[in-house]
Design brief:
Helix content: 25-40%
Order of helices and strands: HHEEEEHEHEHEEEEHEHEHEEEHH
Number of domains: 2
Distance between the termini: 98 Å
Number of helices: 10
CATH class of the largest domain: Alpha Beta
Strand content: 15-25%
Radius of gyration: 26 Å
Largest sheet: 5 strands, mixed
Oligomer: single chain
């Protein structure tokens, strides 16, 4: 009788041992000595904190289905991270909070359709230009009085706070300028009839209309010619050097052109990324 119980006990122990081995393996191959898993590789990468106003399509916005941050800037910063073997974490924040975050070095860099200006260059460093833009005027589709920037005198204008659009709007004589936290708030105000016009970056205005918002339209010519740059804290020159080097690599290997054409449907200007030969 004792022998039977002993044999039964040995069988049970053997079964549990087999179950334990199967659970640890999970059906996957064990890592080879000298190799690391994907999680270990990510853990060994330098983590770079990237600030962005993630409500500025088509440059940075949240995919309604996946919740991921997508857009031209998001694809570009991922490509830069791949070249530099970085693990990038996007820190979403309002546009007017980005430069202060860079000044305090609470983030390592920012990609957020930010125009390179002399005023901003006093506070942060910029990469070489990676996109050419300009200010445009958007009005209700039914508006026949405003045909361009010159017709904004005395009108109620909307713009996003701390942007070059807001700077340009504030040069209009007798204008009442309302500055919104996000450009989407300005779009909503225009569609609701709360403002007469919006001054904002052309590609963002154009993309908004392209997404089926045919109750608004663009009028007149571009008011300015501007270039976007990746902003980096003054005390992180090593990141600036790596960003510029990566942009050069992406230009040479064709990846930058691929990303640009995916989002804008055309070839980028030949000099980008890089300094323009003509202003």
């Amino acid at each position: 009788m004792m022998k039977k119980w002993l044999r039964f006990g040995l069988i049970v122990i053997s079964i549990f041992a087999l179950i334990a081995v199967a659970g640890c393996g999970g059906g996957e191959d064990e890592p080879v000595a000298g190799e690391s898993s994907g999680e270990e590789d990510q853990a060994s990468q330098e983590t770079i904190l990237v600030a962005s106003d993630t409500a500025y399509a088509p440059f940075e916005f949240q995919d309604p289905n996946s919740g991921d941050y997508v857009g031209f800037d998001m694809d570009l910063v991922k490509a830069i991270a791949e070249v530099n073997d970085w693990n990038c974490e996007i820190r979403s924040m309002n546009f007017d909070g980005i430069v202060p975050a860079l000044e305090s070095s609470s983030v390592d860099m920012s990609i957020s359709a930010m125009t390179i200006t002399d005023q901003r260059k006093e506070k942060v460093n910029f990469s070489v230009p990676y996109y050419r833009s300009g200010q445009s005027v958007m009005v209700a589709a039914s508006n026949e009085d405003i045909k361009g920037f010159e017709d904004l005198d005395g009108k109620h204008i909307g713009a996003q706070i701390s942007t070059t659009g807001a700077m340009e709007a504030n040069t209009v004589p007798n204008a009442n300028v309302t500055e919104y936290n996000t450009i989407n708030e300005a779009f909503m105000a225009l569609r609701n009839g709360n403002i007469d016009a919006i001054v904002n970056d052309f590609p963002v205005n154009a993309y908004f209309i392209k997404r089926g918002n045919d109750d608004v339209k663009l009028v007149g010519d571009l008011r300015t010619s501007e270039h976007y740059g990746i902003a980096i804290p003054k005390d992180k020159p090593e990141i600036l050097e790596k960003v510029n080097s990566a942009l050069k690599t992406l230009k040479e290997n064709g990846k930058y052109d691929e990303i640009y054409k995916e989002w804008f449907g055309e070839e980028p200007p030949e000099y980008l990324p890089g300094e323009p030969t003509e202003q």
